[in-house]
Specification:
By secondary structure, the chain is mainly beta. It contains 3 helices and 12 strands, in the order ββαββββαβββαβββ.
Length: 186
């Protein structure tokens, strides 16, 4: 397991998760003796939530978020199929990025009414986060989420610089399919 300061994991929102949120067993085994209770969960829009937890009796090594979890769940309108990427910063807090069913990060600092996305500034760097699954049969190409492609496709530089979670930077070419989806290559 990586050092805890660098520990990240993701969880899909599944049925019956509105009242409690189970952390991975491997993670729970390492942190349960030293993690603050309650722990702070800070979302990408800067809001902080105090969430209490317990160690589940049926699965004696699994930490479960309970107190405050339902309010968090309802506030962010979490739905089955959404996912959360959590980064643990011991011993007091997690950073949470919430992604929709297309694996595109939902930024709740934006307009919640229509789900609009911000424009990319004409100059400077801008970070947008999403999950992408690399196909086994063609690992040299990657299709980006359609929502991202349609919103940002006309303003992306060529080549595009991608930064991995480990900080590695890669310059890649891209083209746009007739349906508006961006496909990275190289």
């Amino acid at each position: 397991m990586p050092p805890l300061a660098d520990c990240r994991f993701f969880r899909f929102i599944i049925p019956n998760m509105e009242n409690q949120f189970r952390l991975p067993v491997a993670f729970s085994n390492v942190v349960r003796d030293n993690m603050s209770n309650p722990v702070q969960v800070i979302t990408t829009n800067g809001q902080s939530w105090s969430i209490s937890w317990f160690v589940e009796e049926e699965h004696p090594h699994q930490v479960v978020f309970t107190g405050g979890w339902r309010a968090f769940y309802e506030h962010y309108h979490l739905q089955i199929g959404d996912s959360m990427l959590l980064s643990y910063h011991q011993p007091k807090f997690f950073c949470a990025a919430i992604h929709d069913t297309t694996y595109f990060e939902i930024n709740y600092g934006r307009n919640l009414r229509n789900g609009s996305l911000p424009a990319i500034p004409a100059h400077g760097n801008y970070a947008v986060q999403f999950f992408a699954i690399i196909p086994v049969n063609n690992p040299d190409t990657l299709k980006l989420p359609l929502r991202f492609s349609r919103k940002y496709g006309r303003s992306l530089p060529r080549p595009l610089t991608l930064t991995t979670p480990t900080g590695h930077r890669h310059r890649v070419g891209w083209n746009m399919q007739p349906n508006g989806r961006i496909v990275l290559h190289g």
